[in-house]
Amino acid sequence: MRLILSVTACIALAAIVVPHAVDTARAAAMQSNSTSLQGAWQTVKITIGGSSPRTITVSQPGPYVTLFTAKHYSRTEVQSETPRPLLPDPSKATADELRAVWGPVVAEAGTYEVSGNTLTLHPLASKSPAAMAAGAFITCSFSLDGATLTIAQQRNQAGPYASPVTFTLTRIE
Prior knowledge:
By secondary structure, the chain is an alpha+beta fold. The protein has 2 helices and 10 strands. The protein is globular, with a radius of gyration of 23 Å. 14% of the residues are buried.
């Protein structure tokens, strides 16, 4: 009988402690995630500075995804306010038609470093061959406010950006 009572007491205690431990671990993971770049982000606004400033408000965020792991990043974007045209036969497309389809596309992946509020990206793969050149980097300032991440381009290996871009992203995972 004592054995049955002991087992019953252990099961009852586990039913109380285990869910609390799981909730505590979940809350700790969410809190550390909320102060970290790590995760999946959706771009919601792109502000382009310089002599012809403009803002792109992302109405259909599907193609605007940025992922950060502990050391790597990947991002894809279609920086256009209008839908890209469909090419019936890409092998017969003109240079202008190809630029209209591929020009707004940004695709890049690599490693990153954080120092204070400075984010330095080191592209390893990119749609742009210049971004993959030896010694290439992109330095940005960033701020994280809950589930909102703001990244403002500052400079690359060639110097400060003439038309810096600021990205506003929302955490999606």
